[in-house]
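To: structure subgroup
Subject: Chain for Friday's discussion

All,

I'm putting the inputs and outputs inline so they're searchable in the archive.
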Amino acid sequence: MKKIVCLLLSCVMLLAVLGGCGNGGTKTPDEPGASTDTAKSFSVGFVLRTTNNAYYASIGDGVKASCDELGWKCTVLDSGNDTSKELENMETLVAAKADLIFLDCVDPSAATASQKVASEAGIPVINLDSGVDDMSMQVTTIYSDNEQNGMEVGKYYASTLDADYEISAVLLSGNTGSIAGQQRREGLMAGIIMQRTGCTEEEAWAAADEMEKSIVSTGKAKNEEAKFEISGQGWGNWTIDEGLVAAEDLITANPKVNLVLGENDSMLIGAITALKNAGITYGTEGTVKLISAADGSKDGYDCIKAGSIMAIGENSPSKIGALGMKIAEEILVNGKDPESYDDITMTEAVAVTADNVNDHYDYGF
């Protein structure tokens, strides 16, 4: 009897080791449902420009969520738009021996010091959203294609016009000196010119550059062949409230306006209120059309659904973050050389319109 009991116990122990009768053996880590205990967990840091902004906060949240799914530790540190705090945050992550650091810098020049701290420690740095002056210490910088987004939106708008339609536009810009802002508005101009004149893309960019020079020197610009005039530029500081004030001034000074160009959709939302207050019709059935080279907030997409805004260039924080995480995995998990990447990596350019807004809505913020 004792021999039978011992035999049964031995069988139970063997089955436990093998995973049970009829299991076919234990799963390997590569099989669905297999244990990931043997998978290495990495420590990732994100030095974020600020969390006091829906766009930037969304990038941080997306990266954190992706790390959580992979079982990686992710530490997001808020720089509060302060370059000194940014450097301090970078030093904190380096001291904690992070395996990789994402950086959304406050200032392209000041970021050199922040990157240097990580570079000297041998920690790869991927810049998200914000470009840096010194690219020698980074893996890559990831952001949306400001120029091509603007061009796609400009082309879409121009494709809806009759050949003899005269465009009388006003321009809502973010802040003086913004490279992204300049790229966005030149993209809008180039797209309109290319679509209306049939010129090459190279010629369209050259013509847009001429308009940009005129705007800088006189505040106005015109392309005769495209029947396209910008009669005023206002500064809305990227916000709804300041976009409203700037739009009110532009509308008052330019009563023949039939197009509002925006460097982001928040300022266009402000412009909608200005047009409404002035008793001017706008949107799909109105006198004034509104288009923006960026960003793609859900509020902006709601305006597209409502017919108030015609098109917005997609500048999706979730897509930027996802592309950053893809590269991080290639480096940390697959061992890809951090120096093998191009200096700039861009998301695909898209003009979000009434035709495709539902497909892109969830990529908004």
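Points worth raising on Friday:
The chain has two domains: 43-138+317-347, 146-314+354-360.
Confidence is low (pLDDT under 50) at residues 1-38.

D.
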